[in-house]
Design goal:
alpha+beta; 1 helix; 171 residues; single chain; five-stranded antiparallel sheet
């Protein structure tokens, strides 16, 4: 009889163990659901010169006009005598959703700062300047009569256009 009682106790213990293991397995194997979402915006590249204004004229300096096409601007000033200058304020806008960096500035003609009678300067803009998405960068371009010249200018010498090309890349 003792063997039979031992077998019965063993069977009951095994059944209880199986029930506990089943309950434990059921608790530990519940389904874990993680819900989430993400939106990916379409990339948009839109960096361009948005505004150019002649902000200051000194002496008899005259703005002959500015043309622009995205990141290219051409400036033309007429300066009659020493002390004349024309200053332009230029705004570059990043209307896209990609940050930009100014890779380089190309100015044509290349001797814009050593011209005979009219010299140009670009201030407030440097290579590697960042332009965050949605922001605006402002800089100036100034045309100045070259006081160092000792020659008498011709009518053609009194006007000298330059072009400024801004090469932006993704940052």
């Amino acid at each position: 009889m003792e063997t039979r009682d031992k077998k019965n106790i063993l069977i009951i213990a095994l059944l209880v163990s199986v029930v506990f293991m089943s309950v434990g397995y059921a608790l530990l194997s519940t389904e874990l659901r993680v819900n989430g979402g993400a939106t990916i915006e379409d990339p948009s590249w839109d960096v361009k010169i948005s505004n150019i204004v002649s902000t200051a004229t000194t002496g008899t300096g005259e703005d002959l006009g500015v043309t622009t096409n995205n990141t290219l601007a051409t400036f033309n000033a007429k300066l009659m005598e020493p002390g004349d200058s024309v200053t332009y304020t230029v705004s570059v806008t990043n209307s896209g959703n990609i940050n930009a960096k100014l890779n380089n500035i190309q100015i044509t003609p290349e001797d814009y700062d050593v011209g005979k009678f009219i010299v140009y300067s670009v201030d407030g803009l440097n290579a590697n300047d960042a332009l965050a998405a949605g922001s605006v960068k402002t800089f100036t371009v100034t045309a100045t009569y070259n006081d160092a010249t000792e020659e008498q200018p011709t009518e053609a010498d009194l006007s000298r256009p330059i072009s400024v090309l801004l090469n932006y890349v993704q940052y």
